[in-house]
Each structure stands twice: as C-alpha cells, then as structure tokens.
Amino acid sequence: MRLINWLIRQNKSMAEIFEERLVLDETMASSLIYDEHLVRYELAKSYSQGKVVLDVACGSGYGSYLLADKAEKVWAIDINQEALALAEKKYQHPKIKFLADDVEILSKVGDKMIDLAVSFETIEHLKNPDNYLEQLKRVLKTDGLALISTPNRQVFGQKNPWHLREYTKEDFSQILAKYFKNVVILEQFNALASVIGDSTDGRVLVGKNKQALYFVALASDVEINLPKNSFVSLNESALIKRDNNPAWRFINKFYSYLNKFGFFKK
Which residue from 50, 149, 194, 211 could staple onto 120, CB 3.0 to 4.6 Å apart? Predict the structure, then answer.
C-alpha cells in the first residue's frame, strides 16, 4: 500500500484524483464533492449563531466565510501559507482572522477561547491525532462543541495517499471518547435526490443497505443538542453533467430505440 501511495504522489494526473483542498469554482460546482463539503458547513453554521468559531484546517477559506454569516468571530487556521494567502484575498470578512498554525499545536489559540471548533476532513491526515484532539479540547470552552468529520474506512479502504489513517465508526467514536464526555456520530451519504417540500422539511430517506461515506461527529463535555433538521445540498449542475455524459446519452438513445420497436410492451 505504501508503494502504491508513493507512486500516486509522483504522478500528477493520478494525484489530482485525490485532491484534498477544495476550491469553490465553476468546475467544482458540478461535482458532488462540492456538496459534500458545503453541507457539512451548513450543519456547522446552524451551531454558530453568536459564537466564537475555530475553523481548523480552513483550506481555501470558503467554509470560514460561510460560518462568518452567523458567528461573532471566526478564527481560520491552516498550516499552508499559500492557501491562507489565497483565502485572505478571496474571502475577506471583518469577522474572520486567518492564521498560520499547526492543528496539532494550535499555538496561536488560547485556552478556553472557542465556543465551536469545526474540523472537517482533517484527522485522517495527522501523524498524531491525539495531540490534535488534546488541543481542540484545550481551546474549547467548558460548554464548547467540536464538529469533526472523517471518511468511512469501510467504504474508502485507505486508498487515498494523503490519508495516514482512516477510521471505522467504532474507531472514530473510541478516539473521540478519550477526550469528550459526549460523542454523537452523524452519517453523511451521497445520492441523486428527489425532494418534495417548501424548501427542505428535515426528512431524508436513505437506502436500507447504503453505507455512510463520511462520519460527522459532534463532541462536547456537555449535553449535545442534535440538529432539528437534516442538511441536504441539491446539485442540479451535477445532474446535468451526468445527463450529458456520452455513455449515459448512448444508453438513453439505445433504450428509446428498444422502446420504439416494442421491446418493453406487455
């Protein structure tokens, strides 16, 4: 596995398959990866009203910008200086402070300063996840809440060369329980969707045998208030992209010919 991961890192075209830093542009907007990230931040946003928020490994900064809509203040940290420079340029906001810092140290964040720590798709990249969780616990207020997401190892199988360790649901729960008294694991799924309602009515039906792609943990030392609604991101452009796929168009054309000649008549 290590040899395969090394080979992928050396091959730029292969490495792009496992791109880890999402930049919201027109290209990404037609991908479900866009919705995967967006819907997590919408969940976090529902907990951010009037809060001091820490966006851990903020990347391109789009999530910090979303959180700033309701938060009192957002501390957005990342170890990558180039990413931070782009984030500051594209997502300037009076409530956001971008800082270069290591998530396993958090040297620029004081004790018990943070109401809500948001850390999506981070823990699987770290050599010392326990250090990272210790630091999140340190900077959170006594009644603070951490939102942490990670891929489901049983689905992804540790294929991504940038992931040092992926977690099963049980593994993820166990490591979080070492640092937080209360842990709730939500599950994240992808699918084409059909929705009826005013906008979203909070009810989502998931296939019986479908496995979660990602886990999103809510962790705190106090009682956790679960979200009242589910969070859904409907991506019309991804559906259009699928419908314009040459193979899919061929299948539809072939089906129409079979139908024309009565293959599906009873």
Answer: 149
